[in-house]
Amino acid sequence: MEKKPIYSTPSMKIANDEGIYKLLLVGIILGVIGVFLRFAGDSDMLSLISWVILFVGAAFCFKGVFKILGA
Known about the structure:
Elements: H1 10-15, H2 18-40, H3 44-70
């Protein structure tokens, strides 16, 4: 009896795609930058920019996670 590898199903191959993890890494880095900028300055414009960067990073992370879950 031949043992089937754990990563042989199509959904596991899609979930282990390198591009998804690169997307998550970019999202996490953007999130960390956004959080840092939230506490780094005290101007309204910097606060607005930091919120935008933070939400863009969070959107990238959500997109990566939902790609994994949808696989």
